[in-house]
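I wish you would study the pair of lines that follows with an eye to the fold:

===
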Amino acid sequence: MKEHSGWDCDGLKSVTRTYQFKTFGDAVAFVMKLALLAEKHDHHPDIDLRFSKVRVMWSTHDAGGLTRMDLALAEVTDTLAGV
């Protein structure tokens, strides 16, 4: 996880990160970008939106935990969030 600073790892099950935005609109815009990314890759994170905070969890349920796809999409998620 050294390459994925800011992400919390639940063993080999999932990676999770919470992003803080200035406004609700900024948070929703991020979620929309993330939704389009997920659809493009047919790989969908768990997303929790709470006003200006967005919690994202990547995991591959079919594989029973983390895969390379989760880690790759975590990196892209950071880019979408401007991190």
